UniProtKB/TrEMBL annotation:
Keywords from the named record: Acyltransferase, Cytoplasm, Transferase
Organism of this sequence: Ruminococcus turbiniformis
InterPro entries from the UniProt entry: AcTrfase_RimI/Ard1, Acyl_CoA_acyltransferase, ATPase_NBD, Gcp-like_dom, GNAT_dom, T6A_TsaB, YpeA/RimI_acetyltransf
Chain ranges of the N-acetyltransferase domain: 248-392
Enzyme Commission no: 2.3.1.234
Similarity-based family: Belongs to the acetyltransferase family. RimI subfamily.
Name under which the protein is recorded: tRNA (Adenosine(37)-N6)-threonylcarbamoyltransferase complex dimerization subunit type 1 TsaB
Gene encoding the protein: tsaB
Keyword field contains DNA damage: no
GO-annotated molecular function: tRNA N(6)-L-threonylcarbamoyladenine synthase activity
């Protein structure tokens, strides 16, 4: 079996052609150049040097994360493009799995550490076991054992775990020079660092482990492949912080919001409304449809109906990542103002019996329980708590 292996998860860019038990070629650069500049030229030069036609490949093994967000995207895009063009499957090889596999046969605890900034690392815990057959003879090959799957964790937490194992540890990866002092201060077990020829990513290891995974049925189409980041990017974290601090703004829903509402419906509800249903609701004269925005992002919505001086909430929702940030409360307050303008005196809603968070929100906003509608909800089946808020009381008190 012949595979092209790609790893651009860190500063190191590395590609290889591996055929069964043989590394035909490997090209590795550990230098400050962007992978978008180096990766395809490296593949082209390497395959020309050893006269490998890409059409003879059986699969493409790619280091699928964790690691640098930009590096992973470049590596995955390159692998996907080649896979689609050649009609070949992709083998998603976890980055730190491949790093540990490069220390083949080591019986110590193998701990790759990639610097994830802020005193955190991408890591996993591995070893090789020299097992025995039923007759007591040693197996021909050591067995690669994943003790702890790859994770993003603080250096302090990693040290605590390694001390519990009580075994000698070998470290490798770009996190070693960054956190060597912390390791020296905190570790109570013997440890050492892998030498230079095996302390960074190696595409040959990605290829060799990829072949093992392929034979075990662990592969995917090029279209299916996605990198595994383990945590959100710095840009996404900064956006999340901005969103948390931003004040929700509520406006009248428009037809252009329907697609976004339908997407949130499918994320949040088992009986999701379609985009067509949302459009039909927005177009009705007796509909009260509001959209919340937070930091320029659609952050929630309420769909209600005006019937005989009462408003019944049919849908109110906030994406999970934006809940408990004041969006739901802002939607309820804005709906009250619209109802008062239309001289609506009462707002009705129902909520799942087990949805404690929503019930708490409604109670804090002045809604009171009126009764129970048994077995009202499905998927899963659950009672509905009927609640209402009288707006006459608020008008008279102002």
């Amino acid at each position: 079996m012949r595979v092209l292996a790609i790893d651009s998860s860190g500063l190191t860019a590395t590609v290889a052609v591996v055929e069964d038990e043989t590394t035909i070629a490997e090209y590795t650069i550990n230098y400050k150049k962007t992978h978008s500049q180096t990766l395809l030229p490296m593949i082209d030069e390497m395959t020309k040097m050893v006269e490998v036609d890409l059409s003879t490949l059986d699969a493409i093994a790619v280091s699928g994360g964790p690691g640098s967000f930009t590096g992973l995207r470049i590596g995955s895009a390159t692998a996907k493009g080649l896979g689609l063009a050649l009609g070949r499957p992709l083998i998603h090889v976890p980055t730190v799995d491949a790093m540990a596999y490069s220390l083949f046969g080591c019986e110590d605890i193998i701990c790759p550490i990639m610097d994830a900034r802020r005193k955190q690392v991408y890591t996993g815990i591995y070893t090789f076991e020299h097992g025995k057959s039923e007759d007591g003879a040693y197996l021909d090959r050591p067995v690669f054992k994943v003790i702890r799957v790859q994770m993003a964790v603080s250096v302090e937490e990693l040290i605590r775990r390694l001390n519990i194992y009580g075994r000698r540890v070998v470290f490798l990866g770009d996190g070693v020079p960054v956190y060597s002092d912390m390791l020296a201060e905190g570790l109570k077990v013997p440890y050492y660092f892998a030498p230079s020829f095996m302390n960074r990513q190696r595409a040959a290891a990605v290829g060799a482990l990829g072949i093992e995974y392929f034979r075990a049925g662990r592969y995917e189409t090029a279209a299916e492949h996605k990198p595994e980041y383990l945590r959100v990017s710095q840009a996404e974290r900064e956006r999340a912080e901005r969103e948390k601090k931003a004040v929700p703004e509520v406006r009248t829903m428009t037809m252009e919001d329907a697609a976004a509402v339908a997407e949130m419906e499918h994320q949040l509800f088992s009986d999701a409304w379609s985009e067509k249903s949302v459009l039909e609701t927005v177009g009705q004269k007796n509909a009260l449809c509001l959209m919340a925005e937070k930091a320029g992002r659609r952050a929630g919505y309420v769909l209600a109906y005006d019937a005989a001086g009462e408003a019944e909430i049919a849908r109110i929702a906030v994406p999970k990542e934006l809940q408990r940030q004041g969006v739901g409360r802002a939607l309820l307050a804005a709906l009250e103002e619209v109802c008062k303008e239309r001289q609506i005196t009462r707002i009705l809603l129902d909520v799942r019996c087990g949805n404690e968070a929503a019930r708490g929100l409604y109670e804090s906003a002045g809604y009171r329980e009126d009764g129970v509608r048994q077995h009202f909800y499905e998927n899963p089946q659950e009672d509905a708590i009927l609640m209402s808020r009288s707006l006459e009381d608020t008008s008279s008190s102002q």
